[in-house]
Amino acid sequence: QVQLVESGGGLVQAGGSLRLSCAASGRTFGNYAMGWFRQAPGKERNFVATIRWIFGKTYYADSVKGRFTISKDNARNTVYLQMNSLKPEDTAVYYCAVALTTGWDTPAGTGEYDYWGQGTQVTVSS
Q1: To which H or E segment does residue 32 belong?
Q2: Model pLDDT, residue 123
Q3: pLDDT of amino acid 102
């Protein structure tokens, strides 16, 4: 069992920045994939970014590449999502998730992830 708790969401003006955190607990982590997804009202949950827990390999959605950065602190069992140059279209509930598959790939599908956090709201005003 894995517990994930997101924090750091809020209201920000377009062009601003936020940093989301996801604290993980419940088991010793191998080279799992930790991902961020987002879901806007009335829309599907979409991939944002992912990182491999041990080797740090990352992968981003095209819509956030160059603006968002995913990182990790293994000592704190925490994954971060630094979001810069935010746009109104980034408004969504952001979810952290973990895929319990070890490997070298960077999973981007919701079905590939095993545990999810409760989500944190990010609202970007124009």
Answers
A1: none
A2: 98
A3: 82
